From TrEMBL:
This is NinB protein. It comes from Xenorhabdus bovienii str. kraussei Becker Underwood. InterPro entries: NinB_sf (IPR036619), Recombinase_NinB (IPR008711). It comes from the Bacteria.
Length: 165
């Protein structure tokens, strides 16, 4: 059986998901796994994050150093957690220094990555970053449309079947 994904945005889709579960065979030796979760970050969010981080990397020097977008992703992600009062796990690096754990934005949910992007924009604005047209466009599209186009396509797929994972 191919994996099925339902985006619960209305009662009809919710009923389709319930019906799909009811129709699954029950087998204690080979049970089905059902996961309920907020979707992971979207492609639009990913583009927006990297455009923003690139602008920061090109315009902000930190502790007399220029850092690339990857480094800024780590710095901004830690800042985001700190501003929320969340504990950040870390350890002494094997060769010295400090290593932070659990910073993978690729595994973040939609809401989590939105907070990281907002934090990056706040930090960049505070440091006088002039955001590029790419970053501005991604932000404007997200504010104007969000991922409505993707959601609309997925909802159309739901009417005819289910989206494949």
């Amino acid at each position: 059986m191919t994996a099925k994904t339902y985006y619960l945005s209305n009662k009809s889709i919710q009923q389709n998901a319930i019906e799909a579960i009811r129709n699954l065979p029950l087998d204690p030796k080979k049970p089905y796994e059902i996961k309920l979760s907020e979707p992971k970050r979207t492609n639009a969010q990913n583009r927006k994050m990297w455009a923003t981080l690139r602008d920061i990397a090109e315009q902000v020097q930190w502790d007399s150093e220029w850092y690339d977008s990857e480094d800024w992703k780590d710095l901004i992600t830690v800042l985001n957690r700190q501003t929320k009062g969340e504990a950040q796990r870390s350890a002494r690096g094997l060769g010295g220094g400090l290593v932070f754990f659990g910073m993978r934005t690729s595994k973040m949910k939609v809401g989590e990555i939105a907070e990281v992007i907002e934090c990056a924009h706040w930090f960049g604005t505070d440091k006088g970053v002039v955001f590029s047209d790419d970053a501005k466009q991604e932000l404007e599209w997200a504010q104007r449309f969000g991922d409505k186009q993707k959601l609309k396509k997925e909802m159309e797929n739901e009417k005819t079947g289910t989206a494949k994972m």
